[in-house]
Design a protein that fits this description.
The chain is α/β, with parallel strands linked by helices and 186 residues long. Helix content is 37%, strand content 22%. It has a seven-stranded mixed β-sheet, sandwiched between helices. It is globular, with a radius of gyration of 15 Å. The two termini are 28 Å apart.
Length: 186
């Protein structure tokens, strides 16, 4: 089993913000896979899918970004999924809007959602799909920026990144992280 987690904040007011890129990718995966049935478990919205012979759990934690590890840790323990079989999608200010970077292991880079995952999973060996949202412009606070919507100019870039992120995750599941990194982290 693989657990694919999109990080974001619950609630309509956050639905299309930069900080919710992880949720947007999970929604794209659900659309691609024809999933419409979600249930709540361990403070998360979850949906199940079978990709080839692999069972996949799509997860959108409902704990707010900074507490995402609470839901993900509980789901991983319940399903007995090793940390190495968890894929996490999240926003990254160190990448230009629409850029992707796949990796495994490492620090949180200051991302509070990742800090929470590291704390609750106890290991850093989960796969990360980082989606670029760029840095705040002059005069903006980080909080205001990550909770803002993409500009009209950025919208096509982020839509393409969401599609490519879903393709990258499908590649990780079917062909492994190395193949996905070589294909999508350019």
């Amino acid at each position: 089993m693989k657990i694919v987690v999109g990080l974001g904040n619950p609630g309509q007011e956050y639905s299309a913000t930069r900080h919710n890129v992880g949720f947007l990718v999970i929604d794209e995966m659900a659309r691609r896979w024809g999933i419409s049935s979600w249930r709540n478990k361990f403070d998360a919205e979850i949906a199940e899918y079978r990709s080839g012979g692999e069972q996949v759990l799509l997860v959108k934690p409902q704990t707010y970004m900074n507490l995402s590890g609470t839901a993900v840790g509980a789901l991983a323990r319940w399903h007995k999924v090793p940390v190495e079989d968890i894929i996490v999608i999240y926003d990254d200010m160190d990448l230009a809007v629409g850029r992707l970077r796949l990796r495994t292991k490492g620090s949180s880079g200051g991302h509070r959602g990742i800090e929470s995952l590291l704390s609750h999973l106890g290991k850093d060996s989960f796969t990360r799909v980082r989606v670029g949202i760029s840095r705040p412009p002059a005069g903006w606070t980080v909080n205001n920026f990550v909770l803002s919507r993409f500009t009209d100019e950025e919208e096509p870039l982020i839509k393409e990144a969401i599609t490519r992120s879903a393709e990258a995750i499908e590649c990780v599941i079917a062909q492994g992280l190395t193949k996905a990194m070589n294909t999508f982290s350019k």
